[in-house]
């Protein structure tokens, strides 16, 4: 059994360090793109069906989405930190370390997830008000949130299992786990909301069930030994340094997701001053752009194990090639999407809320503004993923903090004071432009350092005979 496992690991190692980079990244990216699109699409389906219940219900989705971003921040922190550690360990061909990081991260996800479930269920109403729920939105947000809180432990644990599989280059297994749950959610939404008459709570219940199914499928892959990494009680680390490494590398994901939640709260509170239509419009725009960016994130998730494996194996030339290929492809793709989105902005918003002209007008303006900055997302997102994959915690943390923290939060407070609702609509694209500018110096320095390390790996010619 150990010999078979060793042979499988060697085959995977050769695949990750010898396959031509464009082909390898593309092969790993196709399943992750599909899983991201499915996962994000069912979030949009929630918005689509819930919006049929009214403007306040649509606004509630935006409120709860901010809370889900905070929960996901914890899951991503543990999952991405674990995935980076696992891929680099496998690149060094250190199987024991990969098992240790995987098992420890899974335990952490259970503990953190259970803690968040208890807090959320106990303080549901207060949290919804804190997240920006108006009196008319609060009842919908509270009903939606209670099921989301109940599934928090499943959500966090699934992030860890999913990231381990992706870190190993097992992107197809990851896609199956997330994809089946996502497709189930899409089917259950109209059934629970309308057929069973559960309203907005039905959408949340559908999400809870789909998360349970995804978790079960992902866990099965580990129990059935379809993965390289083995989860076991014996492999759980007793060293604090291992847990700190996971949290340190994953802190950028926590920062990015956490700030996404905080920025959404700030956006909801600011937009709330302009009425429920503004909250609903910005909620719809946020969901649509999350869907558009999911393809880029999926593509980046195909890039990450390639970067981590080859960085661990000291194949720095392949790390550089993989980043350039992924950024160029992503930029071209997002430019095309941005052009289409700018042209059809009113039609996109009206798909969700066709009977409220105010929502369409506000949403279309914000949508077009963000389409202008959409191509910049390729460099922003993939720079963060690059630094996560190679264990550069500070760089990853800073870049993740720029877009929706360092720049967005001050701007969402300042711009509306001078430009009113226009300040709300244009805050995000301005933040994107500033975040892009911040990535460039870090990338220049990193690749310069990488070239220096490459030179150190090249043996110097033997000149002893010439001297003689």
UniProtKB/TrEMBL annotation:
<feature type="transmembrane region" description="Helical">
    <location>
        <begin position="172"/>
        <end position="194"/>
    </location>
</feature>
<dbReference type="Pfam" id="PF01554">
    <property type="entry name" value="MatE"/>
</dbReference>
<feature type="transmembrane region" description="Helical">
    <location>
        <begin position="144"/>
        <end position="165"/>
    </location>
</feature>
<dbReference type="InterPro" id="IPR045070">
    <property type="entry name" value="MATE_MepA-like"/>
</dbReference>
<feature type="transmembrane region" description="Helical">
    <location>
        <begin position="21"/>
        <end position="45"/>
    </location>
</feature>
<keyword id="KW-0472">Membrane</keyword>
<dbReference type="GO" id="GO:0005886">
    <property type="term" value="C:plasma membrane"/>
</dbReference>
<comment type="similarity">
    <text>Belongs to the multi antimicrobial extrusion (MATE) (TC 2.A.66.1) family. MepA subfamily.</text>
</comment>
<keyword id="KW-0812">Transmembrane</keyword>
<feature type="transmembrane region" description="Helical">
    <location>
        <begin position="57"/>
        <end position="80"/>
    </location>
</feature>
<dbReference type="InterPro" id="IPR002528">
    <property type="entry name" value="MATE_fam"/>
</dbReference>
<dbReference type="InterPro" id="IPR048279">
    <property type="entry name" value="MdtK-like"/>
</dbReference>
<keyword id="KW-1003">Cell membrane</keyword>
<keyword id="KW-0046">Antibiotic resistance</keyword>
<protein>
    <recommendedName>
        <fullName>Multidrug export protein MepA</fullName>
    </recommendedName>
</protein>
<feature type="transmembrane region" description="Helical">
    <location>
        <begin position="430"/>
        <end position="447"/>
    </location>
</feature>
<keyword id="KW-0813">Transport</keyword>
<dbReference type="GO" id="GO:0015297">
    <property type="term" value="F:antiporter activity"/>
</dbReference>
<feature type="transmembrane region" description="Helical">
    <location>
        <begin position="101"/>
        <end position="124"/>
    </location>
</feature>
<feature type="transmembrane region" description="Helical">
    <location>
        <begin position="406"/>
        <end position="424"/>
    </location>
</feature>
<keyword id="KW-1133">Transmembrane helix</keyword>
<feature type="transmembrane region" description="Helical">
    <location>
        <begin position="325"/>
        <end position="345"/>
    </location>
</feature>
<dbReference type="GO" id="GO:0046677">
    <property type="term" value="P:response to antibiotic"/>
</dbReference>
<dbReference type="GO" id="GO:0042910">
    <property type="term" value="F:xenobiotic transmembrane transporter activity"/>
</dbReference>
<dbReference type="InterPro" id="IPR051327">
    <property type="entry name" value="MATE_MepA_subfamily"/>
</dbReference>
<feature type="transmembrane region" description="Helical">
    <location>
        <begin position="200"/>
        <end position="223"/>
    </location>
</feature>
